[in-house]
Amino acid sequence: MSELRPSARRFQQILxxxxxxxxxxxxxxxxHTAVAAAEAVGCDVGQIVKSLIFKTRKTDxxxxxxxxxxxxxxxxxVRALLGEKIGKADADFVRxxxxxxxxxxxxxxxxxxxxxxxxxDLLQYESLWAAAGTPYAMFxxxxxxxLAMTGGTVTDVKA
Length: 159
Ligand code: 5CA
Known about the structure:
Elements: H1 6-17, E1 25-26, H2 34-41, E2 48-56, E3 62-68, H3 75-82, E4 86-88, H4 91-98, E5 115-119, E6 128-131, E7 137-141, H5 143-150, E8 153-155
Parallel strand pairs: 2-6, 3-5, 5-8
Antiparallel strand pairs: 1-7, 2-3, 2-4, 6-7
5'-O-(N-(L-cysteinyl)-sulfamoyl)adenosine binds near residues 48, 52, 90 and 130.
């Protein structure tokens, strides 16, 4: 296997330290959007796990929403689950709390622990693909892996 770029290598190390055997795969094409990622790995766009960071309005806490590449997040549904309004996080907030830049944010291995919600639509697939540290890196996992790795709450978050 060829050398991974630094952030992808760092994420591969994080997986290994946590005892996960999953392999980070670097792709020749950009995978910074769900559609691009699905094309690059040859899967359905619904199988792409988008790792989206939101910020609670009053308390400035990061919230992680793992959503199918097919779906958009209804922030009102997340608000109802949290009991607090949320807004989109900016790039600096995402990097500060995850340790990764937008476009490569993985679902696990972040700097901060955060409340995590998992789109129930992800559970219908046999396998999923998620970002692995850079906009060129992905890894394959099952829905059960995603739940075990993140401890997220499965729920309806889609718009
Ligand atoms: N590697 C792909 C597929 S896994 C990926 O990371 N997709 S993603 O959807 O999880 O991450 C991109 C998301 O970052 C976008 O959906 C959007 O919600 C967010 N984003 C993009 N640009 C900005 C920005 N300037 N500020 C805040 N959030 C942004």
